[in-house]
Design a protein that fits this description.
By secondary structure, the chain is of the alpha/beta class. The chain has helices at about 5-10, 45, 55-65, 80-90, 105-120, 140-145, 170-175, 200-210, 285-295, 300-315, 340-350, 370-384; strands at about 25, 30-35, 40, 95-100, 125-130, 160-165, 180-185, 190, 195, 215-220, 245, 260, 320-325, 330-335, 350, 355, 360. It is about 35% helix and about 20% strand. Bound molecules: pyridoxal-5'-phosphate (PLP).
């Protein structure tokens, strides 16, 4: 064991099952470990490094801001934060943004918006979410998360969450008809749950029922947002208009930033003192995000879809591969061998992939060069 791994074992809380590698540097979609071995990165730090490691344009945008003004707190106005909020609203049709530092926090804000809005609209408190979902690790977002495995040890949880089976239309209809419900929260593609997209019919029904019953449609796009699926946000594939969208992971291209986007119906729900964050939307993270968003243009998003098709074509029907799921550069590969073993063999052969449930999960940088993408796919095929 290397020194780093010994120290980790000695001093770091034992919450992570890490891959046996210490990464020391990176450039784009190539990462290097302490022994100088290179890896093709198809994980992007879990969909965070939108343009890969140490991308020159992103580094320039962030360092320029670092050298100008860093943290200020939200007691003052700052230019990068307001510029970013304007970009997000103009590209989504949403009206307001609340900035935080992570996906869980972005969802916490959405839950608070739903509760306050529900209070103002007939005293309704229940938020419906889906089984097999993942919404974060705080106590409230764990309560929202529809997987029992996350609910051991940490109770009691806050009340007011109900879980329905994804894809089951009758169950959704029954749940949303209850008079105490104020909102529906779901991921367009269940990421941690195994890269499982929701069907278009189901999404359309969800929107229709939310309108009929006067409920908030809230989408957790923490992982699917920021170009990952080939659209700026995944909901744009479905042609619907949510009331709340949360995002985080890829937004600032490698810096911690969460955003809760609020549509017309909830734009005025949060008032002074209702919510806050010391770090949220600080100039440095906001400058990183402005630079990322400015580059997520039609050509880049088109490229994401083209790369996605190429990966699918290369993998579908291959020996050892059962099925490919997902959208854009968020793909799940169901393999005959256990996904964790495949990921381990890939790592030994110079390719970093992730897993989600029983799938190998691919989340490469959106600008991964074709050559590295093709090389990575060959390594994956040799190791499934
Ligand atoms: C990762 C993730 C979260 C939690 O984000 P953190 O930044 O780890 O708090 C929430 N929802 C979804 C869909 C995610 O993928």
């Amino acid at each position: 064991m290397t020194d780093t791994r010994q120290l980790d074992q000695e001093y770091i809380a034992g919450t992570y099952g890490r891959f046996p590698v210490t990464l020391v540097k990176g450039q784009g979609a190539l990462l290097t470990d302490e022994n100088g071995k290179n890896y093709i990165d198809m994980g992007s730090g879990i969909a965070v490094n939108t343009f890969g490691a140490c991308d020159a344009q992103w580094v320039a945008a962030v360092t320029a801001q670092l050298q100008t003004l860093g943290h200020t707190s939200n007691l003052y106005y700052t230019q990068p934060q307001t510029r970013l909020a304007e970009m997000l609203c103009q590209r989504t049709g949403m009206q307001k943004v609340f900035f935080s530092n992570s996906g869980a926090e972005a969802n916490e804000c959405a839950l608070k918006v739903a509760r306050k809005w529900g209070e103002e609209h007939g005293g309704r408190q229940v938020i419906v979410t889906l089984k097999n979902s993942f919404h974060g690790r705080t106590i409230a977002t764990l309560a929202a998360t529809g997987q029992d495995v996350f609910h051991q040890h940490f109770g009691p949880f806050p009340e007011g969450f109900r879980h329905v089976t994804p894809g089951n239309q009758a169950e959704l209809e029954a749940a949303l008809a209850q008079p105490d419900v104020c909102a529906l929260l779901m991921e367009p593609i269940q990421g941690e749950g195994g890269v499982e997209p929701l069907e278009g019919d189901y999404m359309a029904l969800a929107e229709k029922l939310c309108r009929e019953h006067h409920l908030l449609l809230m989408l957790d796009e923490v992982q699917t947002g920021n170009g990952r699926t080939g659209k700026l946000f995944a909901y744009m594939h479905y042609g619907l208009q949510p009331d709340v969208v949360t995002t985080a992971k890829g937004l600032a291209g490698g810096l911690p930033l969460g955003a809760t986007l609020l549509g017309e119906r909830v734009a005025k729900v949060l008032g002074k003192g209702d919510h806050g964050s010391t770090f949220g939307g600080n100039p440095i993270c906001a400058a990183g995000a402005c630079s990322v968003l400015a580059r997520l243009d039609d050509a880049l998003l088109q490229d994401v879809s083209t790369k996605s098709r190429e990966i699918r074509q290369a993998l579908e029907g291959c020996p050892g591969i059962k099925r490919v799921s997902g959208m854009g550069l968020m793909l799940g590969v169901a393999t005959e061998h256990p996904a964790a073993e495949v990921a381990q063999r890939c790592l030994e052969n110079g390719l970093l992939v992730l897993t989600a449930k029983d799938k190998v999960r691919l989340l490469p940088p959106l600008n991964i060069p074709w050559e590295l993408l093709r090389e990575g796919i060959v390594i994956l095929k040799q190791n499934v």
